[in-house]
Protein backbone atom coordinates (compact mmCIF):
# COMPACT_ATOMS: atom_id res chain seq x y z
CA UNK A 1 0.00 0.00 0.00
CA UNK A 2 1.26 3.51 -0.75
CA UNK A 3 2.15 5.50 2.37
CA UNK A 4 -0.39 8.00 3.67
CA UNK A 5 -0.58 10.63 6.36
CA UNK A 6 -1.92 9.63 9.77
CA UNK A 7 -5.54 10.58 10.45
CA UNK A 8 -5.86 10.37 14.26
CA UNK A 9 -4.86 13.77 15.62
CA UNK A 10 -6.07 12.92 19.13
CA UNK A 11 -2.99 10.85 19.96
CA UNK A 12 -0.42 12.94 18.08
CA UNK A 13 2.75 14.07 19.83
CA UNK A 14 3.93 17.62 19.18
CA UNK A 15 7.15 17.71 17.14
CA UNK A 16 9.37 20.77 17.14
CA UNK A 17 11.76 21.21 14.23
CA UNK A 18 14.85 23.05 15.46
CA UNK A 19 17.72 24.46 13.45
CA UNK A 20 21.11 24.71 15.10
CA UNK A 21 21.02 28.50 15.29
CA UNK A 22 17.54 28.43 16.81
CA UNK A 23 18.15 25.95 19.61
CA UNK A 24 19.04 28.45 22.37
CA UNK A 25 15.98 30.59 21.68
CA UNK A 26 13.71 27.56 21.68
CA UNK A 27 15.22 26.17 24.88
CA UNK A 28 14.69 29.46 26.69
CA UNK A 29 10.92 28.90 26.47
CA UNK A 30 11.04 25.32 27.76
CA UNK A 31 10.76 23.97 31.32
CA UNK A 32 14.03 23.49 33.16
CA UNK A 33 13.59 19.71 33.17
CA UNK A 34 13.30 19.68 29.39
CA UNK A 35 16.37 21.87 29.04
CA UNK A 36 18.34 19.51 31.27
CA UNK A 37 17.17 16.43 29.38
CA UNK A 38 18.04 17.88 25.98
CA UNK A 39 21.49 18.94 27.14
CA UNK A 40 22.13 15.51 28.69
CA UNK A 41 21.19 13.77 25.43
CA UNK A 42 23.58 15.90 23.39
CA UNK A 43 20.90 17.32 21.12
CA UNK A 44 22.28 20.27 19.14
CA UNK A 45 19.74 20.66 16.36
CA UNK A 46 22.03 18.90 13.88
CA UNK A 47 20.52 17.36 10.75
CA UNK A 48 19.08 13.93 11.39
CA UNK A 49 19.00 14.26 15.18
CA UNK A 50 15.77 13.28 16.89
CA UNK A 51 14.77 13.04 20.52
CA UNK A 52 11.66 12.43 22.61
CA UNK A 53 11.29 14.43 25.82
CA UNK A 54 9.64 12.86 28.88
CA UNK A 55 7.03 14.46 31.10
CA UNK A 56 7.28 14.30 34.89
CA UNK A 57 5.36 11.00 34.95
CA UNK A 58 7.73 9.39 32.44
CA UNK A 59 5.39 9.54 29.46
CA UNK A 60 6.54 11.22 26.24
CA UNK A 61 5.65 14.91 26.31
CA UNK A 62 6.98 16.00 22.92
CA UNK A 63 9.69 15.34 20.37
CA UNK A 64 12.34 17.43 18.65
CA UNK A 65 14.01 16.99 15.27
CA UNK A 66 17.20 18.71 14.17
CA UNK A 67 17.13 20.87 11.04
CA UNK A 68 20.83 21.66 10.97
CA UNK A 69 22.21 24.66 9.15
CA UNK A 70 21.43 26.11 5.74
CA UNK A 71 24.82 24.91 4.50
CA UNK A 72 24.18 21.36 5.75
CA UNK A 73 20.68 21.27 4.26
CA UNK A 74 22.04 22.33 0.88
CA UNK A 75 24.05 19.11 0.73
CA UNK A 76 21.03 16.81 0.81
CA UNK A 77 17.25 16.61 0.91
CA UNK A 78 14.37 15.08 2.87
CA UNK A 79 15.98 16.05 6.16
CA UNK A 80 13.05 15.21 8.42
CA UNK A 81 12.99 11.69 7.02
CA UNK A 82 16.38 11.11 8.64
CA UNK A 83 15.00 12.26 11.97
CA UNK A 84 11.78 10.27 11.55
CA UNK A 85 13.78 7.06 11.28
CA UNK A 86 15.06 7.64 14.83
CA UNK A 87 11.71 8.38 16.47
CA UNK A 88 9.76 5.65 18.27
CA UNK A 89 6.43 4.36 17.00
CA UNK A 90 3.71 6.95 17.21
CA UNK A 91 1.94 9.78 15.42
CA UNK A 92 3.70 13.13 15.26
CA UNK A 93 2.43 16.60 14.47
CA UNK A 94 4.86 19.34 13.47
CA UNK A 95 4.01 22.36 15.61
CA UNK A 96 6.95 24.69 15.09
CA UNK A 97 10.19 25.38 13.29
CA UNK A 98 9.54 24.07 9.77
CA UNK A 99 9.44 26.87 7.17
CA UNK A 100 6.23 27.00 5.16
CA UNK A 101 8.07 26.55 1.86
CA UNK A 102 9.59 23.30 3.17
CA UNK A 103 6.45 21.68 4.54
CA UNK A 104 5.31 19.85 1.42
CA UNK A 105 8.68 18.44 0.44
CA UNK A 106 9.59 17.39 3.98
CA UNK A 107 6.18 15.77 4.43
CA UNK A 108 6.71 13.92 1.15
CA UNK A 109 10.10 12.71 2.34
CA UNK A 110 8.53 11.42 5.56
CA UNK A 111 5.93 9.47 3.58
CA UNK A 112 8.55 8.03 1.24
CA UNK A 113 10.62 6.86 4.19
CA UNK A 114 7.67 4.76 5.36
CA UNK A 115 7.60 2.69 2.15
CA UNK A 116 9.75 -0.38 1.61
CA UNK A 117 10.04 -3.01 -1.12
CA UNK A 118 8.73 -6.14 0.58
CA UNK A 119 7.61 -8.37 -2.28
CA UNK A 120 10.21 -11.04 -1.49
CA UNK A 121 11.11 -10.40 2.14
CA UNK A 122 9.43 -8.67 5.04
CA UNK A 123 10.91 -5.26 5.70
CA UNK A 124 10.62 -2.87 8.61
CA UNK A 125 9.85 0.66 7.44
CA UNK A 126 9.96 3.43 10.01
CA UNK A 127 7.10 3.29 12.50
CA UNK A 128 6.77 7.03 13.07
CA UNK A 129 3.66 8.41 11.35
CA UNK A 130 3.02 12.04 10.47
CA UNK A 131 -0.07 14.18 10.50
CA UNK A 132 -0.18 16.33 7.39
CA UNK A 133 1.29 19.76 8.22
CA UNK A 134 -1.01 22.75 7.90
CA UNK A 135 -1.38 24.21 4.40
CA UNK A 136 -0.07 21.05 2.74
CA UNK A 137 -2.10 19.71 -0.20
CA UNK A 138 -2.67 16.25 1.26
CA UNK A 139 -4.09 14.63 -1.89
CA UNK A 140 -1.24 15.93 -4.04
CA UNK A 141 1.56 14.91 -1.68
CA UNK A 142 0.05 11.45 -1.24
CA UNK A 143 -0.27 11.10 -5.03
CA UNK A 144 3.37 12.08 -5.48
CA UNK A 145 4.41 9.53 -2.86
CA UNK A 146 2.28 6.80 -4.44
CA UNK A 147 3.65 7.49 -7.93
CA UNK A 148 7.22 7.48 -6.67
CA UNK A 149 6.68 4.23 -4.74
CA UNK A 150 5.17 2.62 -7.83
CA UNK A 151 8.25 3.56 -9.83
CA UNK A 152 10.56 2.17 -7.16
CA UNK A 153 8.67 -1.12 -6.89
CA UNK A 154 8.62 -1.65 -10.66
CA UNK A 155 12.36 -1.05 -10.94
CA UNK A 156 13.20 -3.21 -7.92
CA UNK A 157 11.28 -6.22 -9.25
CA UNK A 158 13.67 -8.59 -11.04
CA UNK A 159 13.20 -9.50 -14.68
CA UNK A 160 11.96 -12.97 -13.69
CA UNK A 161 8.80 -11.22 -12.47
CA UNK A 162 8.97 -8.00 -14.51
CA UNK A 163 9.21 -9.03 -18.15
CA UNK A 164 7.23 -7.39 -20.94
CA UNK A 165 3.96 -9.17 -19.98
CA UNK A 166 4.36 -8.10 -16.35
CA UNK A 167 5.09 -4.50 -17.31
CA UNK A 168 1.98 -4.62 -19.48
CA UNK A 169 -0.03 -5.88 -16.51
CA UNK A 170 1.28 -3.07 -14.33
CA UNK A 171 0.12 -0.58 -16.96
CA UNK A 172 -3.26 -2.30 -17.21
CA UNK A 173 -3.68 -2.15 -13.42
CA UNK A 174 -2.85 1.56 -13.48
CA UNK A 175 -5.29 2.18 -16.33
CA UNK A 176 -8.05 0.31 -14.51
CA UNK A 177 -7.45 2.27 -11.31
CA UNK A 178 -7.94 5.58 -13.12
CA UNK A 179 -10.43 4.69 -15.85
CA UNK A 180 -7.86 5.04 -18.63
CA UNK A 181 -7.98 3.26 -21.97
CA UNK A 182 -5.20 0.88 -22.92
CA UNK A 183 -4.17 -0.93 -26.07
CA UNK A 184 -1.22 -3.29 -26.47
CA UNK A 185 0.40 -4.40 -29.73
CA UNK A 186 2.31 -7.65 -29.27
CA UNK A 187 4.74 -9.85 -31.17
CA UNK A 188 4.43 -10.02 -34.95
CA UNK A 189 1.56 -7.54 -34.84
CA UNK A 190 4.28 -4.92 -34.27
CA UNK A 191 5.39 -5.53 -37.84
CA UNK A 192 1.83 -5.31 -39.13
CA UNK A 193 1.41 -1.99 -37.28
CA UNK A 194 4.73 -0.62 -38.62
CA UNK A 195 6.72 -0.72 -35.39
CA UNK A 196 9.66 -2.70 -36.80
CA UNK A 197 12.49 -1.67 -34.50
CA UNK A 198 10.56 -2.56 -31.35
CA UNK A 199 9.97 -5.99 -32.87
CA UNK A 200 13.60 -6.39 -33.98
CA UNK A 201 15.07 -5.62 -30.55
CA UNK A 202 12.67 -7.90 -28.69
CA UNK A 203 12.23 -10.81 -31.08
CA UNK A 204 15.05 -12.95 -29.62
CA UNK A 205 13.38 -13.24 -26.21
CA UNK A 206 10.90 -15.91 -25.15
CA UNK A 207 8.55 -13.21 -23.89
CA UNK A 208 7.25 -11.29 -26.88
CA UNK A 209 7.98 -7.59 -27.39
CA UNK A 210 5.08 -5.18 -27.24
CA UNK A 211 4.02 -1.55 -27.34
CA UNK A 212 1.82 -0.40 -24.47
CA UNK A 213 -0.41 2.55 -25.36
CA UNK A 214 -2.48 4.15 -22.56
CA UNK A 215 -4.76 7.20 -22.86
CA UNK A 216 -6.52 9.27 -20.20
CA UNK A 217 -8.40 12.55 -20.17
CA UNK A 218 -10.63 14.20 -22.76
CA UNK A 219 -9.90 17.90 -22.26
CA UNK A 220 -6.93 20.18 -21.92
CA UNK A 221 -3.50 20.23 -23.60
CA UNK A 222 -2.10 17.03 -25.08
CA UNK A 223 0.89 15.37 -23.44
CA UNK A 224 2.61 12.16 -24.53
CA UNK A 225 5.07 10.37 -22.25
CA UNK A 226 7.37 7.75 -23.78
CA UNK A 227 9.28 5.42 -21.45
CA UNK A 228 11.98 2.91 -22.28
CA UNK A 229 10.78 -0.51 -21.17
CA UNK A 230 13.78 -2.78 -21.71
CA UNK A 231 12.94 -5.28 -18.97
CA UNK A 232 16.40 -6.83 -19.11
CA UNK A 233 19.35 -5.89 -21.25
CA UNK A 234 21.98 -8.54 -21.88
CA UNK A 235 23.53 -6.30 -24.55
CA UNK A 236 22.37 -8.74 -27.21
CA UNK A 237 25.10 -10.22 -29.39
CA UNK A 238 27.39 -7.44 -28.14
CA UNK A 239 27.04 -9.16 -24.78
CA UNK A 240 27.66 -7.07 -21.69
CA UNK A 241 30.33 -8.25 -19.24
CA UNK A 242 28.88 -9.67 -16.04
CA UNK A 243 29.67 -6.61 -13.97
CA UNK A 244 27.74 -4.40 -16.38
CA UNK A 245 24.76 -6.76 -16.52
CA UNK A 246 24.18 -6.86 -12.78
CA UNK A 247 21.73 -3.96 -12.61
CA UNK A 248 20.00 -4.47 -15.92
CA UNK A 249 16.65 -5.25 -14.32
CA UNK A 250 16.49 -1.46 -13.99
CA UNK A 251 16.73 -0.85 -17.74
CA UNK A 252 12.96 -0.38 -17.75
CA UNK A 253 13.41 2.56 -15.38
CA UNK A 254 12.13 5.02 -17.98
CA UNK A 255 8.89 3.04 -18.28
CA UNK A 256 8.60 2.87 -14.50
CA UNK A 257 9.14 6.63 -14.29
CA UNK A 258 6.47 7.56 -16.85
CA UNK A 259 3.96 5.19 -15.24
CA UNK A 260 4.66 6.78 -11.85
CA UNK A 261 4.28 10.24 -13.37
CA UNK A 262 1.07 9.15 -15.07
CA UNK A 263 -0.31 8.10 -11.68
CA UNK A 264 0.55 11.52 -10.24
CA UNK A 265 -1.25 13.24 -13.12
CA UNK A 266 -4.35 11.05 -13.07
CA UNK A 267 -4.68 10.84 -9.28
CA UNK A 268 -4.69 14.64 -9.00
CA UNK A 269 -7.08 15.11 -11.93
CA UNK A 270 -4.90 17.42 -13.98
CA UNK A 271 -6.66 18.91 -17.00
CA UNK A 272 -4.59 17.19 -19.65
CA UNK A 273 -5.08 14.68 -22.42
CA UNK A 274 -2.45 12.13 -21.47
CA UNK A 275 -0.94 9.42 -23.63
CA UNK A 276 1.69 6.98 -22.32
CA UNK A 277 3.72 4.86 -24.74
CA UNK A 278 5.97 2.09 -23.43
CA UNK A 279 7.92 -0.15 -25.81
CA UNK A 280 8.43 -3.23 -23.60
CA UNK A 281 11.10 -5.71 -24.68
CA UNK A 282 13.96 -7.88 -23.52
CA UNK A 283 17.27 -7.53 -25.32
CA UNK A 284 18.15 -11.22 -25.39
CA UNK A 285 20.54 -13.55 -27.22
CA UNK A 286 19.35 -16.29 -29.55
CA UNK A 287 19.66 -17.39 -33.15
CA UNK A 288 17.30 -14.70 -34.37
CA UNK A 289 18.82 -11.82 -32.42
CA UNK A 290 19.61 -8.73 -34.46
CA UNK A 291 23.27 -8.35 -35.41
CA UNK A 292 26.01 -5.74 -35.64
CA UNK A 293 26.04 -4.20 -39.12
CA UNK A 294 22.37 -4.94 -39.69
CA UNK A 295 20.49 -1.99 -41.18
CA UNK A 296 16.98 -1.46 -39.84
CA UNK A 297 14.19 0.63 -41.31
CA UNK A 298 12.24 2.53 -38.66
CA UNK A 299 8.57 3.49 -38.52
CA UNK A 300 9.56 6.98 -39.67
CA UNK A 301 11.36 5.54 -42.69
CA UNK A 302 14.84 6.48 -41.48
CA UNK A 303 17.39 3.68 -41.81
CA UNK A 304 19.64 2.79 -38.88
CA UNK A 305 22.97 0.99 -39.05
CA UNK A 306 23.52 -1.21 -36.00
CA UNK A 307 27.06 -0.80 -34.73
CA UNK A 308 26.35 -2.10 -31.25
CA UNK A 309 23.36 -4.23 -30.25
CA UNK A 310 23.76 -2.88 -26.72
CA UNK A 311 22.51 0.52 -27.92
CA UNK A 312 19.00 -0.88 -28.20
CA UNK A 313 17.04 1.53 -26.05
CA UNK A 314 17.16 4.32 -28.61
CA UNK A 315 15.84 1.90 -31.25
CA UNK A 316 12.66 0.99 -29.39
CA UNK A 317 12.15 4.59 -28.31
CA UNK A 318 12.56 5.79 -31.90
CA UNK A 319 9.52 3.89 -33.18
CA UNK A 320 7.45 4.99 -30.17
CA UNK A 321 8.51 8.62 -30.62
CA UNK A 322 7.64 8.54 -34.32
CA UNK A 323 4.20 7.20 -33.42
CA UNK A 324 3.76 9.88 -30.75
CA UNK A 325 4.79 12.65 -33.14
CA UNK A 326 2.15 11.69 -35.70
CA UNK A 327 -0.54 13.16 -33.43
CA UNK A 328 1.40 16.43 -32.94
CA UNK A 329 0.79 16.67 -29.18
CA UNK A 330 1.54 19.86 -27.28
CA UNK A 331 4.49 18.15 -25.60
CA UNK A 332 6.39 14.87 -25.96
CA UNK A 333 8.67 13.76 -23.13
CA UNK A 334 10.82 10.63 -23.24
CA UNK A 335 12.44 9.07 -20.18
CA UNK A 336 15.04 6.33 -20.35
CA UNK A 337 17.95 4.73 -18.56
CA UNK A 338 19.76 5.28 -21.81
CA UNK A 339 23.51 5.90 -21.53
CA UNK A 340 26.41 5.31 -19.21
CA UNK A 341 27.80 8.57 -20.55
CA UNK A 342 25.09 10.47 -18.68
CA UNK A 343 26.20 8.85 -15.42
CA UNK A 344 29.82 9.80 -16.08
CA UNK A 345 28.71 13.36 -16.82
CA UNK A 346 26.53 14.05 -13.78
CA UNK A 347 26.59 10.98 -11.52
CA UNK A 348 23.58 9.03 -10.19
CA UNK A 349 21.79 11.82 -8.30
CA UNK A 350 21.07 14.27 -11.10
CA UNK A 351 18.63 13.67 -13.95
CA UNK A 352 20.14 15.14 -17.12
CA UNK A 353 17.66 16.37 -19.69
CA UNK A 354 17.63 17.87 -23.17
CA UNK A 355 15.34 20.67 -24.32
CA UNK A 356 15.69 23.64 -26.65
CA UNK A 357 12.60 25.33 -25.22
CA UNK A 358 13.51 28.15 -22.82
CA UNK A 359 10.03 28.12 -21.29
CA UNK A 360 10.24 24.39 -20.62
CA UNK A 361 13.66 24.82 -19.01
CA UNK A 362 12.57 27.68 -16.75
CA UNK A 363 9.44 25.88 -15.58
CA UNK A 364 11.21 22.58 -15.01
CA UNK A 365 14.15 23.94 -13.04
CA UNK A 366 11.93 26.03 -10.80
CA UNK A 367 9.76 22.99 -10.05
CA UNK A 368 12.81 20.77 -9.55
CA UNK A 369 14.09 23.06 -6.79
CA UNK A 370 10.67 23.19 -5.11
CA UNK A 371 10.21 19.42 -5.30
CA UNK A 372 13.76 18.45 -4.21
CA UNK A 373 14.05 16.54 -7.48
CA UNK A 374 17.29 17.74 -9.08
CA UNK A 375 17.79 17.96 -12.84
CA UNK A 376 20.59 19.25 -15.06
CA UNK A 377 20.29 20.53 -18.60
CA UNK A 378 22.54 19.14 -21.33
CA UNK A 379 22.56 20.43 -24.91
CA UNK A 380 21.10 19.17 -28.15
CA UNK A 381 24.45 20.19 -29.71
CA UNK A 382 23.78 20.43 -33.45
CA UNK A 383 27.45 20.18 -34.53
CA UNK A 384 27.47 16.60 -33.21
CA UNK A 385 24.76 15.56 -35.68
CA UNK A 386 27.48 14.36 -38.06
CA UNK A 387 28.57 11.82 -35.44
CA UNK A 388 25.31 9.87 -35.83
CA UNK A 389 25.43 9.77 -39.63
CA UNK A 390 27.38 6.68 -40.76
CA UNK A 391 27.11 7.22 -44.51
CA UNK A 392 25.74 3.79 -45.39
CA UNK A 393 22.43 4.52 -43.62
CA UNK A 394 20.63 7.58 -42.33
CA UNK A 395 21.67 7.00 -38.72
CA UNK A 396 24.24 5.15 -36.60
CA UNK A 397 22.95 3.69 -33.34
CA UNK A 398 26.38 3.66 -31.67
CA UNK A 399 28.92 6.21 -32.93
CA UNK A 400 32.56 5.19 -32.50
CA UNK A 401 34.81 6.89 -30.00
CA UNK A 402 32.43 7.33 -27.10
CA UNK A 403 32.65 11.11 -26.99
CA UNK A 404 29.43 12.90 -25.92
CA UNK A 405 27.55 9.61 -25.77
CA UNK A 406 24.47 10.96 -24.00
CA UNK A 407 24.27 13.92 -26.40
CA UNK A 408 24.53 11.80 -29.52
CA UNK A 409 21.86 9.47 -28.12
CA UNK A 410 19.56 12.44 -27.52
CA UNK A 411 20.25 13.75 -31.03
CA UNK A 412 19.39 10.31 -32.41
CA UNK A 413 16.03 10.37 -30.64
CA UNK A 414 15.30 13.93 -31.76
CA UNK A 415 15.46 12.78 -35.39
CA UNK A 416 12.19 10.92 -34.82
CA UNK A 417 10.24 13.96 -33.58
CA UNK A 418 9.55 16.50 -36.29
CA UNK A 419 6.32 18.29 -35.45
CA UNK A 420 6.05 18.44 -31.64
CA UNK A 421 7.88 20.14 -28.75
CA UNK A 422 10.24 17.50 -27.36
CA UNK A 423 12.28 16.93 -24.21
CA UNK A 424 14.35 13.88 -23.31
CA UNK A 425 15.50 12.67 -19.87
CA UNK A 426 18.46 10.27 -19.56
CA UNK A 427 17.89 9.05 -15.99
CA UNK A 428 19.74 6.50 -13.87
CA UNK A 429 16.75 5.18 -11.91
CA UNK A 430 18.84 3.74 -9.09
CA UNK A 431 19.93 4.89 -5.64
CA UNK A 432 23.39 3.33 -5.15
CA UNK A 433 23.53 3.94 -1.38
CA UNK A 434 20.79 4.57 1.16
CA UNK A 435 19.92 8.19 1.91
CA UNK A 436 17.03 9.84 3.78
CA UNK A 437 13.73 8.72 2.19
CA UNK A 438 15.69 6.89 -0.52
CA UNK A 439 16.72 3.33 0.29
CA UNK A 440 19.26 1.63 -1.91
CA UNK A 441 17.49 0.46 -5.06
CA UNK A 442 15.11 1.78 -7.67
CA UNK A 443 14.22 5.46 -7.51
CA UNK A 444 12.20 7.94 -9.51
CA UNK A 445 14.01 10.88 -11.07
CA UNK A 446 12.62 14.09 -12.59
CA UNK A 447 9.01 12.89 -12.28
CA UNK A 448 8.08 15.21 -9.41
CA UNK A 449 9.86 18.08 -11.15
CA UNK A 450 7.87 17.41 -14.31
CA UNK A 451 4.64 17.13 -12.36
CA UNK A 452 5.29 20.48 -10.72
CA UNK A 453 6.12 22.12 -14.05
CA UNK A 454 3.38 20.61 -16.22
CA UNK A 455 0.79 23.34 -15.89
CA UNK A 456 3.28 25.96 -17.01
CA UNK A 457 4.85 23.75 -19.68
CA UNK A 458 1.52 22.91 -21.29
CA UNK A 459 0.07 26.43 -21.26
CA UNK A 460 3.13 28.44 -22.29
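Q: What amino acid sequence fits the structure above?
A:
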Amino acid sequence: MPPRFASDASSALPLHVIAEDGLDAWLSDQPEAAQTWIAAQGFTGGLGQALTIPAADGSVMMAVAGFGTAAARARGRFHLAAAAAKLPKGIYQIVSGLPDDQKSVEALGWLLSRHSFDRYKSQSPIAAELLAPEAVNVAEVEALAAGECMTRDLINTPASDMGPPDLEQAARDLAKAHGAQINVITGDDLLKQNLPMIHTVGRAADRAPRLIDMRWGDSGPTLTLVGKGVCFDTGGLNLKPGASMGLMKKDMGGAAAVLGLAHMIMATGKQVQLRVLVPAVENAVSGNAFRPQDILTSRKGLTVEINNTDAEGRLVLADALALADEEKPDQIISMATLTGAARVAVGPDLAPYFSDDAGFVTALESAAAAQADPVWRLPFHDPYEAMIEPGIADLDNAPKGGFAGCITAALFLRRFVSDSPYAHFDIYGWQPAAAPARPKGGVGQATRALFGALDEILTR
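Q: And what stands out in the fold?
A: The radius of gyration is 24 Å.
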